[in-house]
TrEMBL record:
Main subcellular localisation: secreted
Entry keywords, A to Z: Secreted, Signal
Organism of this sequence: Panagrolaimus superbus
The keyword Secreted belongs to this UniProt entry's keyword annotation: yes
Localization (cell): Secreted
Annotated InterPro entries: Transthyretin-like, Transthyretin-like_sf
Signal peptide: 1-21
GO CC terms of this entry: cell surface; extracellular region
Keyword Signal: yes
Family note: Belongs to the nematode transthyretin-like family.
Record's protein name: Uncharacterized protein
Domain of life: Eukaryota
Length: 144
């Protein structure tokens, strides 16, 4: 057994695991409203994404599409949804945590029977064990 090789292997495994990726999990809950007819919130799909554009915020990166982390279906007319999942982001600078930038993409039928997408900005960085529940108090209005 070559202890030196084992040591070097373990060192690099641990080093790269801790330095190059940062996994965070999200527990999110919220509410969607369709003010013209609340029945139309049924079958809304709420997707949770991790933005992967290098500088975050509202710029899309066409080469490296954002990662879909989780999704859920709105099954009750109250419009309440719950979604959870984990995302992992590259840490570009050793020791500086690059936390995933989370946002919702919603596919809904409030304005159009064929459905349409709505993106909810800005991104948020609220991770387990804290539940991201901003959109319970401040529901997402789907009407255009
Ligand atoms: C609301 O939408 C549902 C589902 O399409 C429909 O059955 C219902 O008649 C609508 N209600 C009103 C008040 O328009
Ligand atoms: Ca990201």
């Amino acid at each position: 057994m070559n202890f030196k090789a084992v040591f070097i292997f373990l060192f690099f495994t641990i080093f790269f695991d801790t330095v190059t990726a940062n996994t965070e999990c999200v527990w999110a809950t919220g509410k969607v409203l369709c003010q013209k007819n609340q029945t139309l919130v049924l079958n809304t799909i709420v997707e949770l994404f991790d933005l992967d554009s290098p500088q975050g915020m509202n710029i899309k990166n066409p080469i490296d599409p954002d990662d879909k982390v989780a999704f859920t279906l709105v099954e009750e007319e109250d419009g309440i949804f719950r979604v959870e999942g984990c995302a992992s982001d590259q840490d570009w600078f050793p020791g500086i945590k690059n936390q995933p930038e989370m946002y919702f993409r919603i596919f809904h039928f409030c304005n159009n029977p064929n459905g349409e997408y709505k993106y909810i900005w800005p991104i948020f960085r609220v991770f387990v064990p804290t539940t991201y529940d901003k959109h319970i108090e401040d529901p997402i209005i789907l009407d255009n």
